[in-house]
């Protein structure tokens, strides 16, 4: 029977073990280290809701993190990460165990000290990643209930970005930067058009989606069909919107450090014109 051989017990929920296929691994599971000692054998089938960290860097970082974190939180994080893994179609990057655990541990410390951190792109994150946001709501609710704290909605947005990072294999800083970029682009549009876009409106949702897909196309280097006649027409018919679209594209190009096809300016011009028209139709 395939089994793990205990090498070292870090606490009741984390051990270092020899795995029959992966060599030395970090194993995270509720009560997996309880009453265990080195050389004990644990049948692989006997451990439910177990995570195995195989990556050398992740093992090392997690081993360093464990002594700094409340053991009860390790158990809670194991539970919520298992919940996330059950409700996503993609496998999770191992780094979520370090990044999310470390983030929540720091959030709990801030809570104890009465320090609140505002999330400047909460609404953008909620709009961009609704599924991840829903999972993050469950995570924060569980942490609040099990750890006896009251982490607020700003924290849900941060957790959603960590979940998005783990399911797309992109560093959380990159995911966060996309939310920040979209937030900045929306602010620029509002400033230049002298309008306030209602965050719960369909117009806002459409704009966020358009910007998100544009950013993803740029990231992939995806060629967008050029339409020179349309481009010339838009430049002539909607000079203000075309100028703003060009400005937005330049911001994306600079922040993403990737070239942007001219057609993105045309598509964005059409979207901005529609947005401005809808706003005008609604009146003050």
How would you explain this protein's 3D organization?
The structure is a single chain. Helices cover 61% and strands 10% of the residues. The protein is an alpha+beta fold and 284 residues long. It has three domains: 1-55, Transcription Regulation, Sacy, Chain A; 69-170, PRD domain (PTS-regulatory domain, PRD, Orthogonal Bundle), CATH 1.10.1790.10; 184-282, PTS-regulatory domain, PRD. The chain has a five-stranded antiparallel sheet. A hairpin with a 2-residue loop joins strand 1 and strand 2 (14-19). It starts with a strand and ends with a helix. The mean pLDDT is 87. InterPro entries: BglG_antiterminators (IPR050661), CAT_RNA-bd_dom (IPR004341), CAT_RNA-bd_dom_sf (IPR036650), PRD (IPR011608), PRD_sf (IPR036634), Transcrpt_antitermin_CS (IPR001550).
Search tags:
284 residues, alpha+beta, Transcription Regulation, Sacy, Chain A, PTS-regulatory domain, PRD, five-stranded antiparallel beta sheet, 5 strands, PRD_sf, CAT_RNA-bd_dom_sf, CAT_RNA-bd_dom, repeat, Glucose PTS transporter transcription antiterminator GlcT
SSE topology sketch:
Blueprint: E1 3-11, E2 14-19, E3 23-28, E4 41-43, E5 51-53, H1 56-65, H2 71-86, H3 96-112, H4 122-128, H5 130-147, H6 153-168, H7 172-193, H8 202-220, H9 228-237, H10 239-256, H11 263-282
Antiparallel strand pairs: 1-2, 1-4, 2-3, 3-5
Helix pairs in contact: 2-3, 2-5, 3-6, 4-6, 4-7, 5-6, 6-7, 7-8, 7-10, 8-11, 9-10, 9-11, 10-11
Side by side, the strands of the main sheet go 4-1-2-3-5
Q: Provide mean pLDDT, rounded.
A: 87
Largest sheet: 5 strands, antiparallel
What is the end-to-end distance? 72 Å
Task: Please bin the fraction of helical residues.
Answer: 55-70%
**How large is the share of residues in beta strands?**
5-15%
Low-confidence stretches: none
CATH topology of the largest domain: PTS-regulatory domain, PRD
> Which second-level CATH architecture of the largest domain applies?
Orthogonal Bundle
Please identify which CATH superfamily of the largest domain we are dealing with.
PRD domain
Shape: elongated
**Strand segment count:** 5
Tally the helices: what do you get? Answer: 11
CATH first level of the largest domain: Mainly Alpha
Radius of gyration: 24 Å
Q: Kindly give the count of domains.
A: 3
Reading the helices and strands in chain order gives EEEEEHHHHHHHHHHH
Structural class: alpha+beta
Keywords: Repeat
Organism: Effusibacillus consociatus
Domain PRD: 68-173, 174-282
Protein name: Glucose PTS transporter transcription antiterminator GlcT
């Amino acid at each position: 029977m395939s089994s793990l051989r205990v090498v070292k017990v870090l606490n009741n929920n984390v051990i270092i073990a020899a795995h029959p296929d992966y060599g030395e691994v970090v194993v995270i599971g509720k009560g997996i280290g309880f009453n265990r000692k080195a050389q004990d054998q644990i049948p692989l089938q006997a451990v439910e809701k177990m995570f195995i960290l195989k990556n050398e860097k992740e093992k090392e970082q997690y081993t360093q993190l464990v002594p700094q974190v409340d053991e009860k939180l390790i158990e809670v994080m194991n539970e919520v990460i298992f919940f996330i893994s059950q409700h996503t179609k993609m496998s999770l990057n191992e780094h979520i165990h370090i990044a999310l655990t470390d983030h929540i541990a720091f959030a709990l410390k801030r809570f104890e000290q009465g320090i609140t951190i505002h999330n400047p792109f909460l609404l953008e994150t909620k709009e961009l990643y609704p599924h991840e946001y829903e999972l993050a709501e469950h995570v924060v609710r569980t942490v609040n209930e099990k750890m006896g704290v009251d982490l607020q909605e700003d924290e849900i947005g941060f957790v959603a970005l960590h979940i998005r990072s783990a399911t797309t294999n992109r560093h959380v800083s990159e995911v966060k930067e996309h939310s920040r970029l979209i937030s900045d682009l929306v602010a620029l549009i509002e400033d230049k058009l002298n309008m306030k876009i209602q965050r719960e409106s369909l117009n806002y949702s459409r704009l966020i989606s358009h910007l998100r897909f544009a950013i993803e196309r740029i990231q992939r280097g995806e060629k967008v069909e050029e339409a020179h006649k349309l481009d010339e027409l838009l430049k002539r018919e909607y000079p203000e919107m075309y100028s703003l679209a060009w400005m937005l594209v330049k911001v994306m190009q600079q922040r993403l450090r990737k070239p942007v096809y001219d057609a993105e300016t045309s598509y964005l011009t059409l979207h901005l014109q529609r947005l401005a028209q809808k706003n005008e139709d609604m009146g003050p």
